[in-house]
Automatic annotation (TrEMBL):
Protein name (Swiss-Prot/TrEMBL): Basal-body rod modification protein FlgD
Function: Required for flagellar hook formation. May act as a scaffolding protein.
The family this protein is said to belong to: Belongs to the FlgD family.
Keyword Lyase: no
Residue stretches of biased makeup (Polar residues): 1-10
Entries under InterPro entries matching the protein: FlgD, FlgD/Vpr_Ig-like, FLgD_Tudor
Leader sequence segment: none
Region (Disordered), start-end ranges: 1-24
Domain FlgD Tudor-like: 87-223
Domain FlgD/Vpr Ig-like: 107-179
Lineage: superkingdom: Bacteria
UniProt KW keywords: Bacterial flagellum biogenesis, Cell projection, Cilium, Flagellum
Organism: Rheinheimera nanhaiensis E407-8
Length: 229
C-alpha cells in the first residue's frame, strides 16, 4: 500500500499558512512613511530619459502634506470639541437648584415658591388674560393684566385657586389670550421659570440637557434667562 503523506522536510515552509496575517494597524491608510517609500520607488524606476519634473514632485509632496495636515487638524478639532462639551457640562452644573426661563405650555407650582413667568407683546394691546388649568383642562385660576405694555410683561401665580385656597404642588397648564388695540385677538406663547433638577449630556453631539422639575429635559440653548430663585 502506498501513502500520500510526504515527510520530506525540504518542503516545509513552502506552503502558505492561512493563519498568517499581516496586522492591519492603520486600516489601510497611507502614512507619511508609506508616501516617501512610494516616492523613492517612483524616482528609482523612472525613465532616465524622461525624469519626473520638479513641479510634479513638488505638487505630489504638497498634496500629501495638505492631506496629512487636514487629518491632524480634524483630530485636533475633535479633541477641542470634547473639551468644550466637558467645560459646558461643568458650567451648566452650576444651574442645578436655580430657575431658568423657557417657553412652555406648562407651569410648575412647587408648593414652596411662587410660580413666575412673562409674556412678550409685539404690538399694543388693551387686555391680556392668563388662565391656569389642571391636567383635565379645568380652570384653576385666572387673572387679567389691564393695558399691558409692548414688550415683556411679567406675571406671578401664588399657587391659589379662584377661592384663594392653596392648590397641590404639581404641573399646570397655562394659556394667555390677548386683545389688541386694532380689535384682533390671539393666544400667545408663555415663558415660565422652572427649577433645574440636574444636568445631563445627551450622547455624542447631542449637547447639554437641563432636566427641569416637572417639565423634563430641555436644551441648554433653549434657556432664555437664569434666575437665582
Amino acid at each position: 500500500m502506498t501513502s500520500n503523506v510526504n515527510n520530506n522536510s525540504a518542503l516545509d515552509g513552502m506552503y502558505w499558512n492561512p493563519e498568517t496575517k499581516t496586522p492591519d494597524k492603520n486600516n489601510g491608510a497611507l502614512t507619511q512613511s508609506d508616501f516617501f517609500a512610494l516616492l523613492t520607488q517612483q524616482l528609482a524606476y523612472q525613465d532616465p530619459t524622461k525624469p519626473v519634473e520638479n513641479d510634479q514632485m513638488i505638487a505630489q509632496m504638497t498634496n500629501f502634506t495638505m492631506a496629512d495636515g487636514i487629518g491632524s487638524l480634524n483630530e485636533s478639532f475633535k479633541g477641542f470639541a470634547e473639551s468644550m462639551t466637558s467645560n459646558q457640562a461643568l458650567q451648566a452644573s452650576s444651574l442645578v437648584g436655580r430657575s431658568v426661563l423657557t417657553q412652555s405650555e406648562d407651569i410648575v407650582f412647587t408648593g414652596d415658591t411662587l410660580s413666575r413667568g412673562n409674556i412678550e407683546l409685539d404690538k399694543p394691546a388693551t387686555m391680556m388674560k392668563v388662565r391656569i388649568e389642571n391636567e383635565k383642562g379645568e380652570l384653576v385660576r385666572s387673572f387679567s393684566v389691564e393695558n399691558p405694555k409692548t414688550g415683556k410683561n411679567d406675571f406671578v401665580w401664588d399657587g391659589t385657586d379662584a377661592n384663594d385656597e392653596a392648590v397641590v404642588a404639581g404641573v399646570y397648564k397655562i394659556k394667555v389670550d390677548v386683545s389688541y388695540t386694532d380689535g384682533k385677538t390671539a393666544t400667545l406663547p408663555v415663558n415660565v421659570y422652572t427649577p433645574v433638577g440636574s444636568v445631563s449630556m445627551n450622547g455624542t453631539g447631542g449637547g447639554i440637557m437641563l432636566n427641569l422639575l416637572g417639565l423634563g429635559a430641555v436644551k441648554l440653548s433653549d434657556v432664555l434667562e437664569v434666575s437665582y430663585s
